[in-house]
Write a structure and sequence with these properties.
The chain crosses the membrane at residues 6-29, 163-187. The protein is α/β, with parallel strands linked by helices. The protein has 22 helices and 23 strands. The strands form four sheets. Strands 10-11-9-6-12-13-14-17-16-15 form a ten-stranded mixed beta sheet, with helices on both faces. A six-stranded parallel beta sheet has the order 20-19-18-21-22-23, with helices on both faces. Strands 2-1-5-4-3 form a five-stranded antiparallel beta sheet. The longest helix is centred in the first third of the chain and has 60 residues, at 2-61. The protein binds 6-O-phosphono-beta-D-fructofuranose (F6P).
């Protein structure tokens, strides 16, 4: 096909040139050469007439007109002069040579000689007819008729024509070759220009569009960007996100393409209890809380570490299981890790290295070479799993969290056309803090394999972009928040994560009923003010600072002793790590100390429930409480705060929230505190405990509106809409690329 197009591009101009030559150039050339020769012959006739004039005049004067005949006979010995005749003043023929045609009288000869090309066709060939007046007294009015052989003109014309045809053919070939080359160059230039524009490259990048496209390029690029920005701003205003809207977005903008989620933590664990019974457990994880409803809405495949003790007993031959149990809405693919892999990748590099590094929570990160090697190895294993689960070559892959910083680039190697959305659930520190990581460049390069890289807040995006700026040779476009590295563009955007807002009748017990149950269970007096904290048992959550604030509250406002109870639910987590064990022990001993200091018979101010609570139990606790305390020292978002708000459909209850949690940027009607400031937090607890119902309602109603609108479907919807827009741009670019590789066809060229 390609050769045929090339041949056509060559042959068409060649044939055109030859046709033009045949129809126009050759006849024109013939006429021209004939005229040139006719003019030549006229001059020659005049010369001959001049030469003979005197001799004829003399012969006439002497009355020896017979000499004229011999004069003529001598003259026609010239090979080109065929015949000659003398015409009198009245047009009568006085003399003629032998070869002069009898039929050609003097009048006819004069008529012919007046034509542009005076030509007469004889049996012997064509002759030129020239009539020249003679000068002299005795030949006044007489004229000479000269017939010149024109066969040499025909011969020369043929020669000229041959040369001309040769020249035209050569010209045709040259024109055809030039056409091929120019078309090639200008098409490639045009295409690369357009591709550059479509990729959103600036005019100052190495791959410049050709000069003639530059004004057009910048105009198109600016318009495209404006439209994209406008579109994204418009999408930000869209309200009413729910599973149906998300599903329809997947169908319209992602054409129902396959969605694959990758996370370390799985959404459902099968655990075998001591009595041999197997239970299905939902882990305490903000990530799972957020991603699970999205997966239910869009089906697809979730790839995660199979960490439950009975997980292997519940998968098929491909290590897959349909979940949620009972409704089977999507597929969970479990990846098995050895003890060593889990130790190096999860406990080591992820939780002893990246976790404290990103949280800047005064726990020193530990970076071991062996952990790093295992982290790389496990990321490779998950990349293989993604490639194995992908049904086509361009799935939408949602990579979750700091366990998989290298995964985006690894997936990109295996599936270059995949759309990779990476979401970093934890904070991103400033460049100086991140700079202590020995493998910072590798981590950044791995993450920049993503099409879209999401953080909870603009602040984390800014930190990430600055970190890249310090560590890599990358092109950063702040205006559009993009980073181009190795010709690959990544959009760095903030997508505040959220929860699945409970709509309609949830069948929850009333607030009074929940309060009664919880108070009974914990043995609390009816007038107790109940404050709760619900966290993984993690040093970043500010549990210690919270306890200090409770202690200070009881010290500063002694009236609360006996009336104020703080319940901390602390889900066991990462207890294989020394840092966590030490922290958990410390919390236990501080709890004991406060209880010893302020406790009374039947009253303990702090209740530490260091065990896993399922969603229903946590919800019941939230509905029973008067206050929810979230005092993270550094937190990407913190979904506990949003879940508390969602649980309070009575529009009562007060949220005390750390300014260092991403959620503080959205939930400004909470009582915002600096958890490191014990006094401030204790005062906030007092204010919360004494807040009038009307103020509680006003604050809670506003918080509920915010969380309801900014729910998890909006989080996923904004990200997937950006992915859809990106995929559309890629498809256009791929189409242009295809044309570049396969040469433009007639239709494309004319389009
Ligand atoms: O906060 C980061 C995060 O990965 C969350 O997304 C998740 O809620 C939590 O950590 C779970 O930690 P782990 O899986 O180690 O128990």
């Amino acid at each position: 096909m390609k050769t045929l197009r090339l041949q056509l591009r060559f042959l068409v101009p060649l044939l055109l040139t030859l046709t033009v030559a045949a129809l126009v150039a050759l006849p024109l050339m013939d006429r021209l050469t004939l005229r040139w020769f006719a003019r030549d012959l006229n001059t020659r006739d005049a010369l001959v007439a001049n030469t003979l004039s005197d001799a004829i005049n003399e012969a006439q004067a002497d009355g020896k007109s017979w000499r004229i005949q011999s004069l003529f006979d001598r003259a026609v010995q010239d090979e080109r002069l065929v015949a000659i005749a003398l015409c009198g003043p009245d047009g009568e023929m006085l003399r003629r040579t032998e070869g002069y045609p009898k039929t050609l009288g003097c009048t006819r000869a004069r008529e012919l000689s007046d034509q542009t090309v005076p030509r007469l066709l004889l049996e012997s060939g064509s002759v030129h007819v020239g009539v020249q007046p003679l000068k002299g007294d005795d030949v006044d009015g007489a004229s000479l008729v000269m017939l010149h052989d024109m066969s040499f003109i025909d011969k020369r014309s043929q020669d000229t024509r041959r040369y001309l045809v040769g020249f035209i053919v050569l010209l045709g070939v040259a024109v055809a070759l030039i056409t091929v080359v120019v078309a090639q160059i200008s098409w490639r230039g045009w295409v690369s220009g357009m591709r550059g524009i479509l990729r959103g490259e600036g005019l100052l990048v190495p791959l410049l569009p050709p000069p003639e496209l530059q004004p057009f390029a910048s105009e198109v690029r600016a318009r495209l960007r404006d439209l994209e920005d406008e579109y994204r701003r418009g999408l930000d205003l869209v309200t009413g996100w729910n599973p149906e809207r998300l599903r329809s977005l997947l169908l319209t903008q992602l054409r129902g393409d396959q969605v694959i989620v990758v996370s370390n933590r799985e959404p459902y664990l099968h655990e075998r209890l001591d009595d041999g019974q197997v239970i299905v457990r939902r882990p305490a994880s903000g990530l799972v809380t957020a991603v699970e409803p999205v997966m239910r809405a869009c089906s697809g495949t979730w790839i995660a570490h199979g960490s439950g003790s009975a997980d292997r007993d519940f998968v098929d031959a491909h290590d897959r299981i349909a979940v949620p149990p009972g409704t089977n809405e999507y597929s969970l693919r479990r990846v098995w890790l050895t003890k060593e892999e889990e130790e190096g990748y999860y406990n080591g590099f992820a939780n002893e290295g990246l976790w404290p590094l990103c949280h800047v929570a005064h726990v020193r990160p530990v970076f071991r070479e062996s952990d790093w090697e295992m982290y790389k190895h496990v990321n490779e294993r998950f990349a293989d799993a993604v490639a194995a689960e992908a049904r086509g070559d361009d799935p939408v892959v949602l990579v979750q969290d700091y366990h998989f910083a290298l995964l985006p680039a690894m997936i990109r190697e295996r599936l270059p056309r995949a759309t990779i959305l990476t979401f970093w659930h934890i904070p991103w520190p400033n460049p100086e803090s991140f700079g202590i990581c020995p493998w910072r460049r590798e981590i950044l390069q791995g993450m920049l394999g993503s099409t879209i890289l999401g953080f909870h807040t603009r602040f984390h995006c800014k930190n990430f972009i600055e970190t890249v700026d310090r560590s890599l040779e990358a092109r950063i476009e702040h205006e559009h928040s993009t980073i181009s590295f190795h010709d690959k563009e990544t959009l760095v955007e903030s997508y505040p994560i959220s929860i699945d807002w409970p709509e309609g009748d949830r069948g929850w017990p009333s607030i009074e009923e929940c309060r009664r149950r919880v108070f009974d269970r914990l043995g609390l007096g009816p007038f107790t003010i109940l404050a709760v904290g619900v966290d993984r048992f993690d040093y970043t959550k500010g549990i210690l600072e919270r306890l200090h604030a409770v202690e200070r509250l009881l010290e500063k406002y002694p009236d609360w002793v006996g009336k104020f109870v703080f319940v901390q639910v602390a889900a066991p987590t990462r207890s294989a790590l020394e840092e966590y064990r030490a922290f958990q022990q410390r919390i236990h001993s501080v709890t004991d100390r406060i209880n010893t200091r302020y406790g009374q018979p039947g009253y303990q101010p702090v209740r530490l429930l260091a065990e896993h609570h399922d969603h229903e139990a946590v919800n019941e606790l939230f509905r029973a409480a008067h206050i929810c305390v979230v005092t993270s020292l550094h937190d990407g978002m913190n979904l506990v705060s949003k879940e508390f708000v969602a649980a309070r459909d009575d529009e009562q209850g007060v949220l005390v929230l750390s300014r260092f949690a991403g959620a503080a940027r959205e939930l400004s009607e909470a009582l915002i505190v600096n958890p490191y400031h014990v006094e401030e937090t204790a005062d906030a607890l007092h204010r919360a405990a004494t807040m009038p119902a009307a103020e509680q309602r006003e604050r809670m109603a506003s918080l509920r509106m915010t969380v309801r609108e900014n729910n998890v479907f909006r989080w996923a919807g904004r990200m997937l809409a950006d992915a859809g827009r990106y995929r559309l741009r890629e498809r256009i670019a791929a189409r242009v690329q295809r044309h570049t590789n396969s040469e433009p066809d007639e239709k494309t060229l004319h389009a």
